[in-house]
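F.,

This is the one I mentioned.
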């Protein structure tokens, strides 16, 4: 997690493509969530974050939390609804070692999408 200009640019580019009901896997610094909240095409925003400490630290450092958050594991999450967009940012690097994590995310995300839904993910074009 880095709060640097290129990271913000990447997250903003993901957020401007999102629409409807959005689910994000991982809160991180909340950068993509900040941009999603500002996107008028986004109706709702839910983030599943595994570690409560991440959310507490983000709120402490940035003064607020963006969207709704549930503490839990994205991979075992069983929502009662589907989403127009699922966004992933739960791997550390764009490396071959992280490919397994990305593929697992992609498989889970497909099952959470409404018809014509979209999956967005940091680094996805490299995987």
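My design for it:
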């Amino acid at each position: 997690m880095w709060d640097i200009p290129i990271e913000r640019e990447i997250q903003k580019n993901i957020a401007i493509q999102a629409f409807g009901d959005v689910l994000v896997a991982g809160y991180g610094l909340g950068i993509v969530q900040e941009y999603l909240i500002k996107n008028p095409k986004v109706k709702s925003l839910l983030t599943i974050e595994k570690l409560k400490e991440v959310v507490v630290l983000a709120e402490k450092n940035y003064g607020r939390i963006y969207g709704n958050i549930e503490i839990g594991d994205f991979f075992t999450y069983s929502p009662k609804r589907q989403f127009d967009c699922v966004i992933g940012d739960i791997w550390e690097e764009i490396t071959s070692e992280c490919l397994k994590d990305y593929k697992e995310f992609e498989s889970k995300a497909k099952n959470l999408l409404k018809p014509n839904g979209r999956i967005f993910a940091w680094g996805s074009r490299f995987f």
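Helices lie at 5-15, 31-38, 52-62, 99-111.

Talk soon.
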